């Protein structure tokens, strides 16, 4: 059965980003409330505000207003952005360093607090510290086979734990004390508090980009072999049947009850309830798909 669960709506036109530049590439995006942040390959962060408008006919449009842009001063791409709205901070990964910047003016925090040696990072959406003025950050370290946990405050960072992994990690998602890791040849669940680990299933990161997403308390969504979107709990079991993706999925997102996936030609929408494909949207040359606050 075909369902029109989603519509594609343009939010920011290319000219608003490009200006008089010949070419720029969007490397990462973050959306927090009405704030949209875009990181580019020429080391800029752009901040837009998005206003959603619904016409009397029910058509949804977005009006984007550019607030400012900031050059980070390096010849490297901005590879990841994550907002910590409780701290009014944006965590910016560029050149293996996570810098804390003010969400409003994009200026680095005066203390110069930063995390060095990060390949990629994620936030713990089910934090264990209980401190509302702190975010827990997990990084894949540039040190071989190493994961590090940090507490990030408004103007300082503090390392909490360093964990060693059996193979080189390349992607991570976090829930409480549990890390779901894509290693070189397999996915595993690792409890960084106890050190216990659980193998999930094999996967070759050399052949395809792994996908690891926290989708709820103690549950993750993974890109499995054979084009399957697999669900796994922290106990290493699957409580739902997998969804059938194409072999070359490059991104996935969750908007309950739908799992949305991106490949090089389409966006596909499956139901988590019956695993059936509900919608297909043609979309070429997409390379990022993420979900932000619904």
From TrEMBL:
Q: Which GO terms describe its biological process?
A: autophagy; endosomal vesicle fusion; protein transport
Predominant cellular place of this UniProt entry's protein: cytoplasm
Q: Does the keyword Protein transport apply?
A: yes
Q: Does the keyword Ribosomal protein apply?
A: no
**Pfam families annotated for this entry?**
CNH (PF00780)
A GO term from the CC aspect = membrane
Which residue windows are transmembrane per the record? none
Locations listed in the record: Cytoplasm
> Per the database record, which ranges form the CNH domain?
23-294
Q: Which UniProt keywords apply?
A: Cytoplasm, Protein transport, Transport
State the superkingdom.
Answer: Eukaryota
What protein am I looking at? TGFA1 protein
Give the organism the record lists. Answer: Neodrepanis coruscans
């Amino acid at each position: 059965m075909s369902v029109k669960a989603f519509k594609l709506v343009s939010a920011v036109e290319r000219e608003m980003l490009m200006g008089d530049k010949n070419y720029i590439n969007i490397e990462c995006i973050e959306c927090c409330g009405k704030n949209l942040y875009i990181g580019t390959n020429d080391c800029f962060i752009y901040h837009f505000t998005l206003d959603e408008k619904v016409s009397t006919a029910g058509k949804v449009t977005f009006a984007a207003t550019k607030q400012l842009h900031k050059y980070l001063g390096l010849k490297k791409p901005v590879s990841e952005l994550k907002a910590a709205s409780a701290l009014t901070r944006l965590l910016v990964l560029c050149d293996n360093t996570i810098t804390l910047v003010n969400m409003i003016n994009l200026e680095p925090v005066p203390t110069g607090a930063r995390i060095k040696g990060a390949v990629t990072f994620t936030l713990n959406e089910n934090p264990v510290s209980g401190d509302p003025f702190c975010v827990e950050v997990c990084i894949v370290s540039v040190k071989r086979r190493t994961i590090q946990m940090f507490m990030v405050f408004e103007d300082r960072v503090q390392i909490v734990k360093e964990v060693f992994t059996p193979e080189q990690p390349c992607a991570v998602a976090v829930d409480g004390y549990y890390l779901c890791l894509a290693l070189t040849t397999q996915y595993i669940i690792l409890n960084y508090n106890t050190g216990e680990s659980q193998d999930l299933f094999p996967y070759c990161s050399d052949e395809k980009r792994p996908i690891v997403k926290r989708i709820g308390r103690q549950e993750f969504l993974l890109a499995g072999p054979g084009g399957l979107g697999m669900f796994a709990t922290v106990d290493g079991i699957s409580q739902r049947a997998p969804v059938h993706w194409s072999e070359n999925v490059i991104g996935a997102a969750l908007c309950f009850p739908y799992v949305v996936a991106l490949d090089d030609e389409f966006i596909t929408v499956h139901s988590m309830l019956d695993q059936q494909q509900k919608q297909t949207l043609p979309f070429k040359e997409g390379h990022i798909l993420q979900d932000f606050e619904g």
